Amino acid sequence: MKRIVVLSGAGLSAESGLGTFRDTDGLWTKYDLEEVATPQGFSRNPALVHDFYNARRANMRAAAPNAAHAALARLSQSPGVTLVTQNIDDLLERAGASGVIHMHGELDRALCAACGHRWTAPDVMTPDAPCPACAAGPTRPDIVWFGELPYHMETIEAAVTEADLFVSIGTSGTVYPAAGFVELARAVGAETLELNLEGSGGRFDTVREGSATDVVPGWVAEITGDA
């Protein structure tokens, strides 16, 4: 099988009821992103930030993986496949995917800003909860906020430079550094494919338009020979 790197974004989980940045009436629209998704916002009002992510965590835990998650989970069992996601939900893992690289962190994880310890987040996080390792704080969601560096960039870039096929699913592809992955893939001669509601503008060799549950299972079936 080809060496494949799959980058997924919010469009992968939208049909499971988890909103995207563009939703006109979704959770994101009820908050100022500067206040809930930046280190500065957390410093100003940690309770507000925890309230926001507690709500997102509850939404995630009430959601179920969809057919696109299940298809990618099957694909992840094949040799040479790397799943990278911008999403902070756990739906790929709950669908059975292995080795998912979360470049923006995970809602199910907590982080101590004092000592760097990470642990499984409770349903409800609060500003006064101490770190289980150092008993200090503040403790925060293990999420990459605006202005912070995404996780695992060296690992992701190494995988892309070795890929035969780079696939982008459900992401606008306009925010760096993730937006640069397709250029990196093209520079090393990899094929590039976009699966999205609408194409993002001509940077991919092939574009298949449609919802994730419509286009992802069919593509995976072709790759695995189950079509």
TrEMBL record:
Keyword check for Ion transport: no
Active site, UniProt feature: H104 (proton acceptor)
Cofactor: Zn(2+)
Pfam families, per database record: SIR2 (PF02146)
UniProt GO cellular component terms: cytoplasm
Annotated domain remarks: 2 residues (Tyr-53 and Arg-56) present in a large hydrophobic pocket are probably involved in substrate specificity. They are important for desuccinylation activity, but dispensable for deacetylation activity.
Binding site for Zn(2+): C112, C115, C131, C134
UniProt similarity note: Belongs to the sirtuin family. Class III subfamily.
UniProt keywords, alphabetically: Cytoplasm, Metal-binding, NAD, Transferase, Zinc
Binding residues annotated for NAD(+), in chain numbering: 9-28, 86-89, 170-172, 212
UniProt remark on cofactor binding: Binds 1 zinc ion per subunit.
Keyword Zinc: yes
Name of protein: NAD-dependent protein deacylase
UniProt cross-references to PANTHER family, sorted A to Z: NAD-DEPENDENT PROTEIN DEACYLASE, NAD-DEPENDENT PROTEIN DEACYLASE SIRTUIN-5, MITOCHONDRIAL-RELATED
GO MF terms held by the record: histone deacetylase activity, NAD-dependent; NAD+ binding; protein-malonyllysine demalonylase activity; protein-succinyllysine desuccinylase activity; zinc ion binding
Catalysed reactions, as listed in the record: N(6)-acetyl-L-lysyl-[protein] + NAD(+) + H2O = 2''-O-acetyl-ADP-D-ribose + nicotinamide + L-lysyl-[protein]; N(6)-succinyl-L-lysyl-[protein] + NAD(+) + H2O = 2''-O-succinyl-ADP-D-ribose + nicotinamide + L-lysyl-[protein]
InterPro entries according to UniProt: DHS-like_NAD/FAD-binding_dom, NAD-dep_sirtuin_deacylases, Sirtuin, Sirtuin_cat_small_dom_sf, Sirtuin_class_III, Ssirtuin_cat_dom
Localization in the cell: Cytoplasm
Positions contributing to substrate binding: Y53, R56
Domain of life: Bacteria
Domain (Deacetylase sirtuin-type) ranges: 1-226
Gene3D superfamilies listed in its UniProt record: SIR2/SIRT2 'Small Domain (3.30.1600.10), TPP-binding domain (3.40.50.1220)
Listed EC numbers: 2.3.1.286
Principal place of residence: cytoplasm
